[in-house]
Amino acid sequence: MGKNRLLDTCYKALGLALLTVLLSSCSMPRIIVLNDPLTPEEHINLGLSYERQGEYGPALEQYEIAGKKLPEAFLYKGNLYFLKGEYEKAEAAYEKAIKKSGDPRAYNNLAWLYFTMNKEMGKAEELAEKAVSLSPESEEFRNTLDEIRNRKTPD
């Protein structure tokens, strides 16, 4: 009877030692938060670099990342969609850029999109006028407005 107690205690100690070794060898799951080393502006620059190389998928990913903190990224998304001929997506991106940032380039580019599609010319003119009013020194915006007005008024 004393012998069984001694063996029973040894088994318990051995089991406890094995359990300790197993638990110490397995690490507990950790949550790791990765910090993005790039600023939103750097993501836009990287997106532009991809775009110049014709890699539109990675460019769009970079604009998406930048858009979380920088509303200007929606302008670049719109430009990319416009370039790809995805006009509905471009329109949505420009509208979001206008809503979030009020960037005159977004007004101008949306006006040019409508001009290109020959759609909503009245709205295109309003958007171009807004771009010119926000940035009166821009010759590009004035040209957009002039092109729209020339198309609206037959010679």
Structural class: mainly alpha
Low-confidence stretches: none
Beta strands, count: 0
Strand residue content? under 5%
Can you tell me the CATH topology of the domain at 103-155?
Answer: Serine Threonine Protein Phosphatase 5, Tetratricopeptide repeat
DSSP helix fraction: over 70%
Average pLDDT over all residues: 88
Main β-sheet description: none
What is the CATH level 1 assignment of the domain at 103-155?
Mainly Alpha
The N- to C-terminal Cα distance equals: 116 Å
Q: Rg from C-alpha positions? A: 30 Å
H-E order: HHHHHHHH
Shape: rod-shaped
Count, helices: 8
CATH architecture of the domain at 103-155: Alpha Horseshoe
Task: Describe the overall structure.
The chain is mainly α and 155 residues long. Among the domains are: 39-86, no CATH class; 103-155, Serine Threonine Protein Phosphatase 5, Tetratricopeptide repeat. Helix content is 76%, strand content 0%. The protein has eight helices and no strands. It has helices spanning 2-25, 40-52, 56-67, 73-84, 87-101, 104-117, 121-134, 139-152.
Summary, kept brief:
With 155 residues, the protein is an all-alpha fold. The protein contains 8 helices and no strands. It is rod-shaped and about 110 Å long.
